[in-house]
Design brief:
Blueprint lengths: L16 H11 L5 E3 H11 L9 H14 L22 E3 L31 H17 L9 E2 H9 L4 H5 L17 E2 L6 E4 L5 E5 L2 H13 L4 E6 L5 H4 L11 E5 L4 H16 L5 E3 L1 H10 L2 E3 L6 H8 L4 H12 L2 E3 L6 H6 L8
Parallel strand pairs: 3-4, 6-7, 6-8, 8-9
Antiparallel strand pairs: 1-2, 5-7, 10-11
Length: 359
């Protein structure tokens, strides 16, 4: 992904709600090493509507990669640590050891609000106890105030309670938000997905999502003349699409979501993580726009990537692509190269119509 400025994407997205719920569930375990059976059980608790479905494995794989990127888990580094089904799942992983101290037993008891009564029996760190005290005071001071208890965006509520608009982003991945504990509903807050820019180009049920702005503009123009099954073309804007995808639920008649991005680490990570949000929102799964990716590989204008992708990581990234494309893309990633989608430029897309046959 090389167009991060277009999506205001200098930083990665905050932890998704599904990943935060899974992290909180996993962190409730007392074991440093977490085996696959426990991982699957935690996934079933965190995402009961997805576990056991055809999207269960790809969603869990994307969630675990997201947690690893946020340094909330440590994935295996050897092939023996992974199973062989696509996409592969870890046979185990490790939870980072916490250095926070527990409050002394002589600490005076706190009169918790009814919403926080679970804290009476929970094992909490000193900082968690102080965080809950802050929330406890806010709940006390706003009790019965209909205006204060109106549901508002999460970052507005975070600023109000903590004086830091991003504090809840971090807290939602902690054990404070494990099942049966805090929820955003308790704080009268909700996550707000970023806007999604799109054009209506036809009556078809496919939404074609384009990662970067120049290719989005080119394909918007070309599809306006002959759109096939594409009804809307949307601008992904890099990692922002991991959250903005839920906006597609507002479009009528959507039966299919196709994605086209760079062939690099970010470009393959984005659609797989966005698929987590799509599944939660009961949208169609995100699939690769195969014709465009084949055309990009045929152009083969390789350039250096910021870093070489390790073979095990590359195998996980390419699992989203159709089988015939996985090996050549793996070779590109592990060689430390990438293919920018802009290689399929205006002239290539205008005069080579092969990409239209398999969007």
């Amino acid at each position: 992904m090389n167009d991060s400025q277009d999506g205001n994407d200098a930083e990665r997205q905050p932890l998704s709600s599904s990943a935060a719920h899974l992290a909180a569930t996993l962190n409730a375990t007392t074991h440093h090493r977490v085996e696959q059976a426990t991982i699957l059980t935690a996934f079933g608790q965190a995402c009961p509507g997805t576990a056991g479905t055809t999207q269960g494995r790809p969603v869990l794989a994307a969630l675990l990669d997201e947690l690893a990127d946020h340094h909330l888990i440590e994935l295996p580094r050897s092939r023996e640590g992974w199973d062989t089904t696509q996409p592969p799942l870890p046979r185990w992983f490790r939870l980072p050891k916490t250095t926070e101290t527990r409050p002394p037993r002589t600490t005076a008891p706190v009169l918790w609000r009814r919403e926080l009564c679970w804290a009476n029996t929970a094992t909490l760190t000193t900082s968690q106890t102080e965080t809950l005290k802050t929330i406890n005071r806010w709940l006390r001071d706003t009790d019965g105030d209909d205006r204060q208890q109106t549901v508002v965006p999460m970052r507005e509520r975070s600023l109000e309670i903590f004086g830091d608009e991003k504090r809840l982003d971090a807290l939602t991945s902690s054990t404070l938000f494990a099942p049966g504990r805090l929820t955003l509903a308790t704080l009268f807050a909700q996550r707000i997905p970023p806007p999604l820019a799109y054009n209506r180009v036809g009556d078809g049920g496919t939404v074609l999502v384009i990662e970067n702005s120049d290719t989005y503009e080119t394909l918007s123009t070309l599809l306006a003349d002959s759109c096939g099954q594409v009804g809307h073309i949307a601008f992904g804007g890099g990692h922002a699409f991991e959250a903005s995808i839920t906006r597609i639920a507002q479009l009528k008649g959507v039966t299919d979501i196709a994605y086209y991005g760079d062939l690099d680490d970010d470009g393959l990570t984005i659609p797989q993580r966005a698929n987590v949000s799509a599944t939660t929102a009961q949208l169609p799964p995100i699939r690769p726009a195969c014709g465009l990716y084949r055309l990009l590989l045929n152009e083969n204008r390789q350039g250096p990537a910021p870093k070489r992708v390790e073979p095990l990581t590359a195998e996980r990234r390419v699992s989203w692509l159709p089988a015939p494309l996985r090996r050549p893309v793996t070779d590109i990633l592990t060689a430390g190269n990438r293919l920018a989608q802009e290689a399929t430029g205006t002239l290539t897309l205008r005069y080579d119509n092969s990409w239209r046959d398999d969007l």
